[in-house]
Specification:
Keywords: Oxidoreductase
Strand order of the largest sheet: 8-9-10-7-11-12-13-14
GO molecular function, one term: nucleotide binding
CATH class of the largest domain: Alpha Beta
Strand content: 25-35%
Protein name: Gfo/Idh/MocA family oxidoreductase
Distance between the termini: 31 Å
Shape: globular
InterPro entries: Gfo/Idh/MocA-like_OxRdtase_N (IPR000683), Gfo/Idh/MocA_oxidrdct_glycsds (IPR050463), GFO_IDH_MocA-like_dom (IPR055170), NAD(P)-bd_dom_sf (IPR036291)
Number of domains: 2
Order of helices and strands: EHEHEHEHEHEHEHEEEEEEEHHHEE
Low-confidence stretches: 348-360
Length: about 375
């Protein structure tokens, strides 16, 4: 039996507590320490979960036999914490976004690759079965030439002046762009690669004073693909935060969210196996494997299991590596620059459109070849 990987978790906020519960129940992973600036929170975890609490991050990294670290702190701390871990040869799972500076993210991705270390970013939507199925169909060429992507996310997150937390401070990585728009943008990068230009971006405020409440932008990608981003976390008409993408190609259309994928194959298209001409609808229940431990959604557990699988084979491909996280940070930076009137908003591409590949199936550990 393979010994579990010893991991430490730093940051006991909302996402940190969620990751702790999942990681501690994930096969192949053992949480050996938690770290946070709050002795109260850390002490509670130590008392009731019997996991040692360490006040200093350096002490956590110094633990004998530590294999990995889960970083769930405010974004402005990510770069330094990632680099401290990598300097000790420790694998890293980091919450999104990777950093607040695209150049720094790109450099860290290169450093992780040279060191042969796993660097994974917490964009959980890539582990959602419906979004993964959209990716598989695109790679099969089901839509023919891709022409346009519309990515949107709306929710009632901020409906009054917010208390002062890291999410309400731009210097901490708060705001709609980095906290929420990052998710649909990351999916756009997965489907179409890195954008070439961004124009007409707006970052508007409704309730917040230091951060944005809504983000709108136009993007262009290689091959003539156009894209639009529309995200608003102050939308009173939404029951909860939702993410949805629409993709148009010469041979059809895909509409996808967390619950279902709607696929239209047109007159000149060839339906992949399991699909037909016209509309086919598949639901998340058809496209999702059961994780070993469930909390919040299968995708949160699947990404932790993916982290374990990646640590077992650092050289192999895995979902949400640092290079893909850096590409999303680059796109977010382009949107921010365009909204501020910085021109031209043009990317130095760090992620190229993914080439055609054999049929794949979404699994708990990422993507595997689909058996005939």
């Amino acid at each position: 039996m393979t010994e579990p990987f010893n991991v430490a978790l730093v940051g006991l906020g909302k996402m940190g507590i969620s990751h702790l519960a999942i990681a501690n129940a994930t096969p192949g992973m053992k949480v050996v320490a938690v770290c946070d600036t709050s002795a109260l929170l850390g002490g509670m975890v130590q008392k009731y979960a019997n996991i040692p609490y360490l006040a200093q991050y350096a002490d956590a990294l110094s633990l004998p036999g530590l294999d990995g670290v889960i970083v769930a702190t405010p974004t402005r701390f990510h770069a330094d914490m990632i680099r401290q871990a990598m300097a000790r040869g420790i694998h890293v799972f980091c919450e999104k976004p990777m950093t607040l500076d695209a150049d720094t993210s790109g450099a860290i991705a290169d450093e992780a690759a040279r060191a042969g270390l796993v660097g994974q970013v917490g964009y959980h939507n890539r582990f959602v079965g419906t979004f993964g199925e959209a990716k598989r169909l695109l790679d099969l060429g089901a839509l023919g030439r891709l022409r346009h992507i519309h990515a949107e996310a709306y929710g009632p997150v901020v409906l009054k002046p917010a208390a002062k937390t890291w999410r309400s401070q731009s210097s901490e990585g708060g705001g709609c762009l980095y906290d929420y728009a990052a998710h649909p943008v990351n999916l756009m990068n997965w489907y179409a690669g890195a954008p070439v230009t961004c124009s007409g971006a707006q970052m508007t405020q409704q309730w917040s004073t230091d951060v944005d409440d809504a983000v709108f932008a136009n993007l262009s990608f290689d091959g003539g693909v156009s894209g639009q981003v529309s995200v608003n976390w102050a939308d009173e008409t939404a029951r909860k935060m939702t993410t949805k993408l629409c993709l148009w190609g010469d041979h059809g259309k895909i509409t996808v969210d967390r619950q279902e994928i709607q696929v239209f194959i047109g007159t000149n298209g060839t339906p992949p196996e399991g699909y037909r001409k016209g509309w086919t609808i598949k639901y998340i229940t058809e496209l999702t494997d059961h994780p070993a431990f469930y909390l919040r959604g299968e995708e949160y557990s699947a990404q932790m299991e993916g982290f374990v699988a990646a640590m077992r084979n650092p050289a192999g491909p895995y979902v949400n590596d640092f290079a893909s996280g850096a590409a999303t940070d680059r796109t977010l930076s382009m949107i921010r620059d365009s909204a501020r009137g910085v021109v031209p908003a043009r990317a130095t591409a760090v992620l190229k459109p993914v080439p055609q590949r054999p049929a794949m199936r979404a699994g708990l550990f990422g993507w595997t070849l689909k058996r005939a």
